[in-house]
Amino acid sequence: MGKRIYNYYASGNTAKGFYNLFDETLNRLERIYILKGGPGTGKSTLMKKIGEAWGSAYDLEYIHCSADYGSIDGVIIPDLKLGIVDGTAPHVIEPKYPGVIDEYVNLGDAWDSVQLRKYKEEIFQVKKQIKACYDDAYSLMEEALRIHDDWERIYIKNLSPEKARNLTDRLTTEIFDEDTLDKSGSQLHRFLGAATPEGPKDFIQNLTEDILQRLFIKGRPGTGKSTMLKQLAAEGEDRGFEVEVYHCGFDPNSLDMLIFRELGVAIFDSTSPHEHFPSREGDEIVDMYEEIIQPGTDEKYENEITALSQQYQEKMKQATAKLKDSNRFRNQLESYYIDAVDFTIIEQKQAELEREIKAWEQHFTS
Q1: In sequence order, which ranges of the chain are alpha helices (DSSP H)?
Q2: Most buried by CB count within 10 Å: which residue of 84, 226, 346, 365?
Q3: Is 215 in contact with 268 (CB distance < 8 Å)?
Q4: What is the Cα–Cα distance from 114 to 133, expressed in whole angstroms?
Q5: Distance (Å, rounded) from C-alpha 307 to C-alpha 142?
Q6: Contact 171/215 with Cβ under 8 angstroms?
């Protein structure tokens, strides 16, 4: 029987453009293999095979690709402090300590450059089309964020700061009680979900599957969900806990979830587009609207809220369509490389990498 697999994103397509949190994940590792090579050279497949080979003995973390749902950008074996990651654009990763911690794995050795040059003009053109799709998607998301900010302002001006402080204090007591740890706390930043060509995706259920107490935050935009999470994250770190901090895949400056694994507690925004509901013992709803917003706000501003909601959803729908177009061009780009790659060389690279990981495993566990 395999161990646990935790899924998350380390980068995303956001209203602030492409946003990268890879350093947060890699900084805790002592051995990193950085895969280099063009699209279609089998990076994701290679990493999944490594995961399958070590997943029966160790917990794994799969870093998912926001550009191509179903592909991964990395696999981490936390118990070995080892990771293999895709180091190509847009999340370019370069060694910080070459040979000491980081190693390149050059999958470009497997392609036929003469064959690739036959598609030179096509490759140039399709890469321009991919960039144009992303530029349009980011612009649409930026417009959606401005609309979302207007939506938030309705609730912000009808929010009771005193009630918000009281709610945060109550949750601080509920989560931590008097617990502290005799060590330095830390924060580990990630994304629980992402805007993908298939629409918004999240891994809340996977990430909280083994958490005993889950707090589902309900509320409207601007009801202080992210602000409260930032305060709880700081409190957890001050008390010596490792805090898993999950950013919003739409606005990376906002937070969507915290996990305190040492306490067995998770608290997260469970509103659209990652709407979830209690389903087991230990689940609890925290309704920000009921707790801190002036009663009747929804009714008083119903027409304005409806209009802003529709405008926001339309912009996000258009942005998703652009991401879907980018994925179609990406598949076309991959096809040129697939035709030029000798996958027996990729298999040799994988076998060599597996030998190195086994040697590291023996060194690390001895």
Answers
A1: 22-26, 43-54, 113-117, 120-156, 161-176, 204-207, 225-238, 288-292, 297-300, 302-340, 343-365
A2: 84
A3: yes
A4: 29
A5: 18
A6: yes
Per-residue pLDDT in tens (0 to 9) along the chain, 366 residues: 458 999 999 999 999 999 999 998 899 999 999 999 989 999 999 999 999 999 999 999 999 999 998 899 999 999 999 999 999 988 888 888 888 899 999 999 999 999 999 999 999 999 999 999 999 999 999 999 999 999 999 999 999 999 999 999 999 999 999 999 999 999 999 999 999 999 999 999 999 999 999 999 999 999 999 999 999 999 999 999 999 999 999 999 999 999 999 999 999 999 999 999 999 999 999 999 999 999 999 999 999 999 999 999 999 999 999 999 999 999 999 999 999 999 999 999 999 999 999 999 998 887
Q: Quick count: other Cβ atoms within 10 Å of Cβ 146? A: 13
Omega before residue 200 within 30° of 0, cis = no
238: left (phi over 0), alpha (psi -120 to 50) or beta: alpha
Closest to 344 in 3D by CA, of 116, 112, 113, 9: 112
